[in-house]
């Protein structure tokens, strides 16, 4: 048992995991750029009020899962680690006057989020999200564009098909009456509710629809659904979103009980599951519209929509599907070895020269026999071994192609050029111009 371990629910990304993440980040960056989203980076923590007002005080994320930072000295401010990126991005939108930029402002961010949740498979206390936000467009066309972008991520990552669940959860015009109806419904069953849910029933009955408590889950089968109570404007919007999705050929399952775990949503709400999976636990992404959030965080009323994709869960799903994570780790193109075990100066010097020229190279710096050095190069899956021997006095080294099994003398001053030529012809194949 090691003395120290990573915090519970958080994991180290070892090189193979990091490479798998890097591949997903590259896919995310490429997609976001193709759709016109620009990168933003907000701090890992914010004033707690940003999350309380943005996400809502009566949510699991704020009530139970926020990592609060103890205020220091006389600064007295209360901060919390970001449990999700949307509130921080909208805070930045307001703070930097992005309302004056051409709308919508399309932003993307990929990074770690923190929730003090009970750790289990696919549920971590630090996890990564690929997030996309389009602020300043009321939709419905952009809603469909955002959903299509989210789905394309899974396709590009090699995780298709996936299942899209879709709902509209109304707005300030129609939701209050529905919420009241829901409250009345739950009140009738109050004696069966666990204490937390009974408490929430008065403050935010919508949260009960999202509850994982088995009694509440059973009760929810008979609860009134929002979709039957949408006002004309929300219904119109929802019809528009569906028409655009249909036109793009995107299949979805209408899920009138889908409410999402964060309070800022209005109208469009969606979640994505790996094909065949069920239940909240396994959502590999989710998002929706938040037309009141900019105002809640102090800006002018401005609509917005976005999504977050859980990269940890996408990798788990890829592994579960048996296809692997598709990540390749970099190996050096050349390893510098030598007949004289002690001649580490020459080996280091040659590797340094090659790397300065842009060639991925590693010097064997262990004082060990040539045979062992060559075994190490093969284990590294290096393409070439550069063997340093007596010929160095005449300015030459031996270049061994470890894959082809051939070897020849090459002048040191042409070595980098030679290796670059080999690398490009390797990339382009035998027909390439090299
Ligand atoms: P969310 O549904 O809370 O939405 O999280 C988005 C995704 O993050 C989830 O579908 C899941 O894949 C992943 N995720 C959430 N919690 C965990 C966890 N504890 N461990 C591993 N993965 C997790 C949001 O965060 C919204 N900000 C999405 C959004 C953006 N809505 C509008 N714009």
Task: Please supply descriptive tags for the structure shown above.
8-stranded mixed β-sheet, 16 strands, 5-stranded mixed β-sheet, disordered C terminus, Rossmann fold, alpha+beta, 2 domains, BirA Bifunctional Protein, domain 2, 434 residues, single chain
Beta-strand residue percentage = 15-25%
- Helix-strand makeup class: alpha+beta
Helix content: 25-40%
- The Cα radius of gyration reads 28 Å
How do the strands line up in the largest sheet? 1-5-6-11-10-9-7-8
The CATH architecture classification of the largest domain is 2-Layer Sandwich
Cofactors, ions and other ligands in the entry:
histidyl-adenosine monophosphate
CATH superfamily caption of the largest domain: Bira Bifunctional Protein, Domain 2
| C-alpha termini separation | 52 Å
Overall shape: it is elongated
Q: Quick one: how many beta strands?
A: 16
Number of helices: 15
The level-1 CATH class of the largest domain: Alpha Beta
Residue windows where pLDDT falls under 50 for at least 5 positions:
428-434
Sketch the major β-sheet.
8 strands, mixed
Give the overall average pLDDT.
Answer: 92
| CATH fold-type name of the largest domain | BirA Bifunctional Protein, domain 2
């Amino acid at each position: 048992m090691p003395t120290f371990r990573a915090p519970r629910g958080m994991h180290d990304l070892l090189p193979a995991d990091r490479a798998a993440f890097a591949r997903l980040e590259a896919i995310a960056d490429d997609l976001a750029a193709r759709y016109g989203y620009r990168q933003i980076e907000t701090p890992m923590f914010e004033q707690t009020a940003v999350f309380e007002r943005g996400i809502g005080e009566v949510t699991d994320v704020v009530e139970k899962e926020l990592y609060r930072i103890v205020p220091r000295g006389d600064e007295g401010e209360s901060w919390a680690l970001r449990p999700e990126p949307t509130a921080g991005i909208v805070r930045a939108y307001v703070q930097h006057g992005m309302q004056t930029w051409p709308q919508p402002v399309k932003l993307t961010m990929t990074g770690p989020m923190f929730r003090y949740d009970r750790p289990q498979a696919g549920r971590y206390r630090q996890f990564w999200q690929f997030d996309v936000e389009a602020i300043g467009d009321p939709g419905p066309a952009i809603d469909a564009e955002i959903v299509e972008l989210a789905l394309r991520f899974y396709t590009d990552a090699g995780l298709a098909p996936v299942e899209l669940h879709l709902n509209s959860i109304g707005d300030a015009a129609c939701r209050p009456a529905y919420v009241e109806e829901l409250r009345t419904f739950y009140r009738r069953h109050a004696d069966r509710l666990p204490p937390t849910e009974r408490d929430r029933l008065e403050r935010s009955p919508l949260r009960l629809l999202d509850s994982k408590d088995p009694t509440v889950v059973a009760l929810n089968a008979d609860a009134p659904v929002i979709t039957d109570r949408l006002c004309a404007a929300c219904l119109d919007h929802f019809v528009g979103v569906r028409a655009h999705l249909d036109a793009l050929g995107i299949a979805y399952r209408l899920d009138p009980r889908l409410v999402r775990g964060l309070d800022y949503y209005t109208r469009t709400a969606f979640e994505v599951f790996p094909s065949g999976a069920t239940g909240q636990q396994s959502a590999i992404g989710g998002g929706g519209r938040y037309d009141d959030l900019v105002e809640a965080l102090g800006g002018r009323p401005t609509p917005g929509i976005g999504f977050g994709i859980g990269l940890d869960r996408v990798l788990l799903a890829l592994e579960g599907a048996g296809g692997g994570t598709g990540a390749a780790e970099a190996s050096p193109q050349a390893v510098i070895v030598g007949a004289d075990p002690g001649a580490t100066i020459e080996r280091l010097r040659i590797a340094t020269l090659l790397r300065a020229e842009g060639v991925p190279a590693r010097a064997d710096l262990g004082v060990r026999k040539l045979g062992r050095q060559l075994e190490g190069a093969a284990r590294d899956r290096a393409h070439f071994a550069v063997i340093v021997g007596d010929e160095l006095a005449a300015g030459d080294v031996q270049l061994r192609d470890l894959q082809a099994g051939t070897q020849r003398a090459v002048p040191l001053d042409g070595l980098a050029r030679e290796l670059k030529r080999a690398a490009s012809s390797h990339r382009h194949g035998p027909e390439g111009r090299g």
